Amino acid sequence: MTEISQxxxxxxxxxxxxxxxxxDLYCRIPFRKTKADNPEVIGLAARxxxxxxxxxxxxxxxxxxxxxxxxxxxxxxxxxxxxxxxIWDEFNHDWNQLVLEATRLRQANVVAVLPNAEVEDLIAxxxxxxxxxxxxxxxxxxxxxxxxxxxxxxxxxxxxxxxxECLVASHIVPWSVSEQLRTDPRNGLCLSATFDRLFDRGxxxxxxxxxxxxxxxxxxxxxxxxxxxxxxxxxTPMLRPRRFLPQPEHLDWHRNNVxxx
Length: 261
Fold this sequence. Notes:
Blueprint: H1 16-28, H2 39-48, H3 52-63, H4 67-71, H5 82-92, H6 95-107, H7 134-151, E1 167-171, E2 188-192, H8 193-200, E3 204-206, E4 212-214, H9 216-219, H10 224-229, H11 248-257
Antiparallel strand pairs: 1-2, 3-4
């Protein structure tokens, strides 16, 4: 913990480990909830022996690097440190490592278990990927689900459904194809369970312009319910996430390898 960021105006220097935990939380909650009165911000602040306002400011610092926020003319907070940028750049290129390092820090009692998470979900086992344990799967899936759902503000990007219990964080390129993308939120879509299954089975995809494409197999059916509940969305724009916009190359892979036009 020898590396430090630039000093805050009214606080102590941030260490690399603290910044990893802060960035992990930044990814897991909607940007509009990066406030000092958020229980998750308060919890992290208590474990880091910092004020909630200090943690909220640091989350705002990360927001200043976020390209999707800039597109919406949200600037985040300035006065960032060199290490803030290094953390952002490092883990935007290696999401799996972010999950494992944040988990390691929790195991070391640097921070409490996240709300609603199981203790065993936060244990990072060693070993080759083909011998992954259920625990390791849960670690990655927990982060991926939190990051994707918070990016879409817990809304299905096709139907607009906002019932968390019905939502799935869908991988565009599946784990079996790319282990590197397993926790990358830019490889994710927030879909209702039905549309997640359609996407997974190649009956639905998205264009590079983020328009919904429904397979002709469904569009040509005479089933009124399919037409009203599924084919209706053909050609409509996807509801874009607040952060972590899906990467075009991932969507292109899905159209060419999974979708049945």
